[in-house]
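Weekly modeling sync, notes
Attendees: S.R. (lead), two postdocs, one rotation student

Agenda item 3: backlog of single-chain predictions. S.R. asked that every request posted to the team notebook include the full sequence so nobody has to chase files. The rotation student volunteered to paste the first one in as an example of the format we agreed on. Action items at the bottom.

Example entry:
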Amino acid sequence: MNKMVTTFSCDVCHEVKFLKEEEKGFIKFVCQKCNEVKITVKPKEYRGLKKHCNCLDGSFKISKIDNLDKITIKKIKCGKCNQEIEWIAIDDKGNEITEEEREHLLNTVKCEQCESRFFVIDSTYKTPKVKCLECGSDIRDIKCDDYVSLKEVCSCKNNIFELLKSEKIPTCRECGNKAEKLYVDNDGNEIDRVTRELLIIQDNYDYLERQIDEMKTEFEDRIYYVESDISRLRGKISDQEEHNYILQNDIDSIEREISSIGRDINSMEYDINRLKENVEEMDFKIRY
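Predicted structure, as returned to the notebook:
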């Protein structure tokens, strides 16, 4: 299906020439006759249209491609000489810049509060901070190694830096070098490399000592719990032995009672046998 290229016209007066107005990152094309807004365009970041072509007319014609689901702008031309208007690189204030300068703007951080790109380094904190030069807002914390901070002033005597989105360390606006590192103690005082290494060794020693103390405490706790378990088991064993002793005494007492009953039974059997003999003897006498 062929796509049809047509020219925008004003819905009110059907004029095809428009004037350009820029507002907060948008470009509005307004009918030059009735001042009706026809279309609003959001350019790419740091992109803008030339104000006019070589004929200095200042009016524009806009061609479009009509699709079923959307309208695409194809070209923007001068309303007088029909020359195509170029998209150019612009800075934050709308001034024309080179493509290299635009790439630099795209790759640098700007303050969210005032949009400044000029920053300073504040090393009074344990973790150095990058702050906006204009409004003082905190931009980024720079995480450094132990006992390492950043110098607030570059070797070229400049103290204004910029931040590249791809870099962690600020870059000097004057010479382009990264902010220099320096060694500091816990109070922020500058020290030399040997002193820093000694502090790191001391920290490692203190860390190992804490680890040993923690292991010792853990070991003592485990010994305490083991001894408690042993004591509890000994108590159970002692209770069981006492219970076994009582049970054995009961068994011995029952056996003695059984033996006594056995003797009584034997004595009773003896008496019964005697009675039988006496009865038999008496019966014999009676008969004979």
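Discussion: group reviewed the output briefly. The chain has two helices and 17 strands.
Action items: rotation student to repeat for the remaining queue; S.R. to check formatting next week.
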